[in-house]
Amino acid sequence: MRIVRYQQDGEAPKFGWLLDEKVGEIQGDLFGQYRRRDAKTPLADLKLVAPSTPTKIVCVGRNYVEHAKELGNEVPKVPLIFLKPPSSIIANGETILLPPQSAQVEHEAELVVVIGKRGRNIKPEDTKGYILGYTIGNDVTARDLQKTDGQWTRAKGFDTFCSFGPWIDTDFDPADAVVTCRVNGQMRQMASTRDMVFNVSVLVAYISSVMTLEPGDLIFTGTPAGVGELNDGDEVVVEIEGLGALKNPVKAEGK
Ligand code: ZN
Fold first, then answer.
1. What is the pTM of this model?
2. Residue 53 C-alpha to ligand 1 middle, in angstroms?
3. Where are the domains of the chain?
4. How far is CA 128 from CA 23, 98, 119, 164, 174, in A?
5. Measured in angstroms, how far is the CA atom of residue 60 from the centroid of ligand 1?
6. Distance from C-alpha of 232 to C-alpha of 249, rounded to nearest angstrom
7. Fold agreement (2-49, 57-252)
8. Domain 2-49, what architecture?
9. Which of 67, 123, 196, 214 is the residue whose CA sits 20 to 30 A from 12?
10. How far is CA 189 from CA 81, 148, 179, 223, 240, in A?
11. How far apart are alpha carbons 48 and 92 in whole angstroms?
12. Radius of gyration from C-alpha coordinates of the chain
């Protein structure tokens, strides 16, 4: 099933499910008991918003060997994790704003895990039961500030620096899918999720040994090699085989 969140006639966003470009409302609790209404409303008639409202966004650094190398880093012995604030979220189609504090904002194409059930100290073999599904993400990063600050909160935390969507796919298999990133049609990143240093089960188990994971929380699983600059007027597209495409225009803030 593909899950979307949408707005119609200025009402509060609702969850829905997608079938053949048509959307049906999900009534009840997406993470508990719910009922699916018939998918009748054309997707084109709705405004899709980001498909989850996480309490936190946990990200994994240096989870592909070639990406760790390109920035002159070693692959970590245990997953390297950091947080992005929910205020940085934007949806598919919304604009990534380049802040005046940075001269080097970069894209990071990533597979994103969406948590479906509250969990702490989840065992790797049990993680499947805690995952709602998967979506596509762009972990936008001010690379210059990441280097100068040491702590990554500012470099990763600007408004509009967390794009994900357009939907959550509950049947996606994360074992071996091609992740690509194109800027203005030009290929920048391409790798398979099979090249991750720590796979999804290991990541969910490891993060849940630190913090309670809540329904709707996101885990950005790291980016492959090929990260590069975003400039005013660009269009960045992250695609994951079997999941779809996430597209965002880029603008300099205040322009
Ligand atoms: Zn990242």
1. 0.97
2. 19
3. 2-49, 57-252
4. 26, 37, 12, 21, 11
5. 6
6. 9
7. no
8. Roll (2.30)
9. 214
10. 21, 25, 8, 9, 11
11. 8
12. 17
Residue 143 Cα to ligand 1 middle (Å): 11
pLDDT tens digits in sequence order for the chain, 255 residues long: 999 999 988 899 999 999 999 999 999 999 999 999 999 999 999 999 999 999 999 999 999 999 889 989 988 999 999 999 999 999 999 999 999 999 999 999 999 999 999 999 999 999 999 999 999 999 999 999 999 999 999 999 999 999 999 999 999 999 999 999 999 999 999 999 999 999 999 999 999 999 999 999 999 999 999 999 999 999 999 999 999 999 999 999 987
Spacing, Cα 38 to ligand 1 middle (Å): 37
Q: What separation in Å is there between the alpha carbon of 66 and the centre of ligand 1?
A: 13
CA 77 vs CA 10, 65, 113, 169: distances in Å: 48, 12, 21, 30
Is 3.30.750.24 the CATH number for 57-252?
Answer: no
Residue 84 Cα to ligand 1 midpoint, Å, equals 10
Distance 24 CA to ligand 1 centre (A): 33
Calculate how far, in angstroms, residue 27's C-alpha sits from the geometric centre of ligand 1.
Answer: 34
DSSP state of 11: P
CA of 222 to the centre of ligand 1 (A): 5
